[in-house]
Design brief:
Number of strands: 17
CATH topology of the largest domain: QueA-like
Strand content: 25-35%
Shape: globular
CATH class of the largest domain: Alpha Beta
Oligomer: single chain
Strand order of the largest sheet: 2-1-17-16-14-3-12-13-15
Distance between the termini: 25 Å
Number of domains: 2
CATH architecture of the largest domain: 3-Layer(aba) Sandwich
Order of helices and strands: EEEEEEEEEEHEHEEHEHEEHHE
Length: 341
């Protein structure tokens, strides 16, 4: 299976640069994964495609203002860090730019010394392990000094940083937003619950994988980076009951899908658990946890388009993407949505 098999032609003007004024006014493509049949809808009508007794599972991770710019204490060279993964209390895995300037022992200062980072380890492809020093509460300092880590294909400045958070974001720790959830409003979630649909939350902190393209020819040789996930006891019980009663489990976003599939693959049941996952889902994978999923339109040749191709088929997904291009859907993080059922 070749990475090039998951390519499609995307005009640059269809890459959404800003969020819509109203979150749930985005387009919604409804895709039948068995037949490939397509309906064009508006996202707030998603409620018409969710059935009473469905279980809707969302990722409640919260994006950190994870991009910080400082300077080396000795040379004053400008350094940019993207915080990716909390290794332990004050030690983080970061993507550094320019990484070649940062050796073990290098100290970087941010905000005139409000925050300092000392390099304690060197990884591959621009990764550095850094220990942070500060007085006060780390996330408050980060909020003061950092900015939202928008993906490189978004060139416009984000006027309201809350628009890169879901309305239900709760557990801070992501370097990117679980963007399929950006379409939901609190009002829409209330309507969904009032219809008899159970809403529950898991956490997966989105990390490095979001920023890394697949740069190998053979899909199977691509290495996924690990991300932290968590599921509580109440959610595990709801999902296990849903399986027993043959209710539909609908995941919102590839991050939610990966979490649910990780737990079901490892334990053959849902359970109260937290850990790290590097699950890589591509065609040939047999889904064990979910029955439908809501997702955005993903980058060509990405692990995310491979995941949705595994859920339908590569042919059905590529055809749907070409249809989305023809109908001028908006793509990627601030783009439109797809329900695959």
């Amino acid at each position: 299976m070749k990475t090039d098999d998951f390519d499609y032609n995307l005009p640059e003007e269809l890459i959404a640069q800003t969020p819509l004024v109203k979150r749930d006014d985005s387009k919604l493509m409804v895709l039948d994964k068995q037949t490939g049949d397509i309906k064009h809808e508006v996202f707030h009508n998603i409620i018409n495609y969710l059935e009473k007794d469905d279980i809707l599972v969302l990722n409640d991770t919260k994006v950190m203002p994870a991009r910080i710019i400082g300077e080396k204490e000795d040379t004053k060279a400008v350094i940019e860090l993207l915080l990716l993964k909390n290794l332990e209390k004050d030690s983080w895995e970061c993507l550094a730019k320019p990484a070649k300037r940062i050796k073990v022992g290098t100290t970087i200062s941010f905000g005139n010394g409000l925050l300092k980072a000392i390099c304690i380890g060197i990884g591959e492809e621009g990764i550095r392990m850094l220990k942070f020093e500060y007085d006060g509460i780390f996330y408050e300092i980060l909020d003061k000094l950092g900015s939202m880590p928008l993906p490189p294909y978004i060139k416009e400045k984000l006027k309201d940083k809350d628009r890169y958070q879901t309305v239900y974001a709760k557990n801070i720790g992501s370097a990117a937003s679980p963007t399929a959830g950006l379409h939901f409003t609190k009002e829409l979630l209330s309507k969904i619950e009032n219809k008899g649909i159970k809403i529950c939350y898991i956490t997966l902190h989105v990390g490095l994988g979001t920023f890394r393209p697949v740069n190998v020819e053979d899909v199977k040789t691509h290495k996924m980076h690990s991300e932290f996930y968590s599921m509580n006891k109440e959610v595990a019980e709801i999902l296990n009951n849903a399986k027993k009663e043959e209710k539909r489990i609908v995941s919102v976003g590839t991050t939610t899908t990966r979490t649910l599939e990780t737990i079901m693959t490892k334990y053959k049941t849902f359970k109260e658990i937290s850990g790290w996952t590097d699950i890589f889902i591509y065609p040939g994978y047999e889904f064990k946890a979910i029955d439908a999923q809501i997702t955005n339109f993903h980058l060509p040749k990405s692990t995310l388009i491979m995941l949705v191709s595994a859920f339908a088929t590569k042919e059905i997904i590529i055809n749907a993407y070409n249809e989305a291009v023809k109908n001028k859907y908006r793509f990627f993080s601030f783009g439109d949505s797809m329900l695959i059922k």
